[in-house]
From TrEMBL, chains A, B:
Chain ranges of the HTH merR-type domain: 23-70
Organism: Streptosporangium jomthongense
Residue stretches of biased makeup (Low complexity): 9-18
UniProt-listed InterPro entries: BldC-like, DNA-bd_dom_put_sf, HTH_17, MerR-type_HTH_dom
Segments for region (Disordered): 1-21, 51-74
Entry protein name: BldC family transcriptional regulator
Amino acid sequence: MSPLKAVAPDGTFTTGPDTTERLLTPGEVARVFGVDPKTVNRWALTGRIPSVRTPSNQRRYRQSDIDALLNPSP
Amino acid sequence: MSPLKAVAPDGTFTTGPDTTERLLTPGEVARVFGVDPKTVNRWALTGRIPSVRTPSNQRRYRQSDIDALLNPSP
DNA sequence: CATTATTAGGGTAATTCGGGAT
DNA sequence: CCTGTCCGAATTACCCTAATAA
């Protein structure tokens, strides 16, 4: 199964990648938690947060992962 | 082999275009990695991603290439 | 044919990376 | 153990106009 899903927010089926899963930059995540962007990256290095790497080795963080940290065991 | 059919691991095949070789626009790839579409084109220029050119010089990216970047030799 | 969105370019400011010292 | 800061180098975002796509 491809990681590039094709279900639109309204439930319709569209061909193409899943655009519903937003990716956040280190700076954006840093603002959420009120810490330095480098601290966010250290969390990734120590395995506290999952991260996605761009082809140029920059880190991106899934919105769902951040939401999970903000809402533990709902 | 023809790009117009997909052969599953069990030997069956599906009719229609090969979805693993679908071409993605710069904007679609950009949303996958959470970057600007221009950045995706820069990846192509610097050889980080293979790209296909339309007759009008626009860039397209093979979904299989994008999948490979997200799942580096598992 | 007209309209709207996307893309290709280039130029510049901002962000990110990694290491290392504090 | 965890965090914020300094550094240089690399990477990216946003600005614009013209061309292409739907």
